[in-house]
């Protein structure tokens, strides 16, 4: 989603609150709860899950391993729920021609550095360019090349942009900023 006027352009960035992350968090918590209940039922000797006979699973070593995987899965699942709830990584990129400032804002994890805001002068922006890695885990990121700094990513890593979408976004942004496109 983008807001665009003659002097200001704001590109909104989606965070970790995606349908896929919520599905994975739900699946992980359900599966981990099952593992933990199976491990605990083998420990106490009662069936905590109906239909599963606890005598079939010996507590040492199978029950302990099931409990360990259950606890580990719960931690990872709750971590995913928290990142989705806090919408970590969401924010915006703002280009203000009137003030000559580029600022990028992202939400982080709760704490002292929850709000991440970086500002640069637009005169230091040299180019807009893609970073594309193909293969099994392909990723395509649009970045801003700033003089004397590392490249600043403008899109999130898992956004799934096609090459055509990335070219279009880069061309629009380069036209607005009046800079070159690098790397296509």
Brief synopsis:
The protein has helices at residues 19-44, 59-86, 163-177, and strands spanning 2-4, 8-13, 91-96, 101-107, 115-121, 125-133, 139-146, 152-153, 180-181.
Radius of gyration: 23 Å
Q: State the end-to-end CA separation.
A: 23 Å
Extended strand count:
9
Strand content: 25-35%
CATH architecture designation of the largest domain: Roll
Question: How many independent structural domains?
Answer: 2
Q: What is the C-level CATH assignment of the largest domain? A: Mainly Beta
Biggest β-sheet, characterized?
5 strands, antiparallel
Spatial shape: elongated
Question: Could you explain the architecture of this structure?
Answer:
This protein is of the alpha+beta class. The chain has 2 domains: 20-86, no CATH class; 91-181, Roll (PH-domain like). Helices cover 38% and strands 27% of the residues. It contains 3 helices and 9 strands, in the order ββααββββββαβ. The strands form 2 sheets. A 5-stranded antiparallel beta sheet has the order 1-2-3-4-5, with no helix packed on it. A 4-stranded mixed beta sheet has the order 8-7-6-9, covered by helices on one side. β3 and β4 (101-107) form a beta hairpin. α1 (19-44) runs antiparallel to α2 (59-86). The longest helix is centred in the middle third of the chain and has 28 residues, at 59-86. The radius of gyration is 23 Å and the shape is elongated. It starts with a strand and ends with a strand. This is Photosystem I assembly protein Ycf4. It is found in: Plastid thylakoid membrane; Plastid, Chloroplast thylakoid membrane. Keywords: Chloroplast, Membrane, Photosynthesis, Plastid, Thylakoid, Transmembrane, Transmembrane helix.
